[in-house]
Amino acid sequence: MPGKPTLWITRKLSDKTLERAVRDYDAIINYEDGLHSADEIIAMSAKVDAILPCHSELFTEEVAARLDPRLKIIANHSVGVDHCNLEALRQRGITITNTPDVLSDATAELAFLLMLGAARRAVEGDRMVRSASWNFWSPSFMVGKQVTGQRLGIVGMGRVGQAMAKKARGFDMEIHYFNRSRLPKEREVGAQYHEDIDSLLRVSDFLSLHCPATPQTKGILNAERLATLPDDAVIVNTARGALIDEAALIAALKSGKIYAAGLDCFVNEPGGNPAFAEFDNVFMLPHIGSATVETRDAMGFRALDNLDAFFAGKAPRDKL
Ligand code: 8YV
Predict the structure, then answer these.
(1) Which residue's CA is the nearest one to ligand 1's atom 6?
(2) What is the pLDDT of residue 303?
(3) Quick one: which of 9, 35, 90, 136 has the fewest CB in 10 Å?
(4) What is the mean pLDDT of residues 161-189?
(5) Which residues have CB under 8 Å from 115's CB, separation 6+?
(6) Which band of pLDDT confidence, cut at 50, 70 and 90, is reported for residue 256?
(7) pTM of this structure
(8) Which PROSITE patterns does the annotation name (predicted)?
């Protein structure tokens, strides 16, 4: 009887995920949770049959070319796979999977938090009370922008975009979207489709990004597109930092064109962009869209389900 496959888990995943991995695999686990260089990833690939990485491990074209032939599958603990050069990995005969569906609600929930927090001035208000400098109240004080009943533009109407739309319906928002293809009518639930992004931007009092980062979507929200938005629009990004031209957003915040922004993703991660910190109307979080207990367990289990299928000789459900 062959032994268990050897699996490298690159980061500290949820306890339940690690328990199951240790039960079913000969698991090497990074309990210290540090990051790995390209050389370390390449060296590990000679010792394992499978890797279960996060978006923090980069499988570039160069890394893919140098991976050991022992490595058969990369079962990502993420829905986004912009950290993987899929083409180069496929050429090496490596199976790649991701974890769709299970993080849609958690991510949409965080997008909503950012949208509300940006619109209702959460950063300023929290700081004021916390620093004991709240010494004044008036009806004209801390007036924000109402979310209820406004127009919401969604870029990317995949699973997370649809979860966002569902939550927005509870706020009586008028939903518009841009997507590579139009959804079947029953899945639109009244959302209005725009064939091009500029048409969507023109009606987006609130704009939420939910598309993957690809060479085609990099910098999709640039200076020109920001200018297309209605004045005083609010921007929300829980997808990937690369979607926004950060210098253009900073200029639009400075000029007052954009009312506020809620950002969970940045071009540089970890770290973010310190230039945003000077704006009280930018509500920021450190890439925690899917960081709930329930969702972390579900992501880990989904990645393990993909590995189990692969090693049982079946097609993994989330094979890319
Ligand atoms: C994760 C994400 O936090 O799934 C994604 O694409 O960006 C986040 O949900 C991260 O990738 C965990 O590995």
Answers:
(1) 80
(2) 98
(3) 136
(4) 97
(5) 147, 206, 208, 234, 236, 262
(6) very high
(7) 0.95
(8) D_2_HYDROXYACID_DH_1, D_2_HYDROXYACID_DH_2, D_2_HYDROXYACID_DH_3
Same domain (yes/no): 123, 226 = yes
| Cα 316 to middle of ligand 1, angstroms | 19
> 123 CB less than 6 Å from ligand 1?
no
Å from CA of 143 to ligand 1 middle: 34
Judge if the beta carbon of residue 210 lies within 6 A of ligand 1: no
Q: Is 296 in the pocket of ligand 1 (CB under 6 A)?
A: no
Are both 181 and 121 inside the same structural domain? yes
Say whether both 174 and 264 belong to one domain: yes
Report yes or no on 146 lying in a domain: yes
Question: What's the CATH number where 40 sits?
Answer: 3.40.50.720
Domain range spanning residue 114?
104-284
Count: domains in the chain: 2
- State the average pLDDT over residues 177-192: 96
Residue 240 annotated in active site: yes
Active site residue 77: no
Q: Which of 11, 77, 194, 240 is catalytic?
A: 240
For residue 2, what pLDDT is reported? 72
CA of 289 to the centre of ligand 1 (A): 8
109 is an active site residue? no
The pLDDT of residue 213: 95
Tell whether 178 and 149 lie within a shared domain.
yes
The residue-averaged pLDDT of 37-44 equals: 97
Mean pLDDT of 289-293: 98
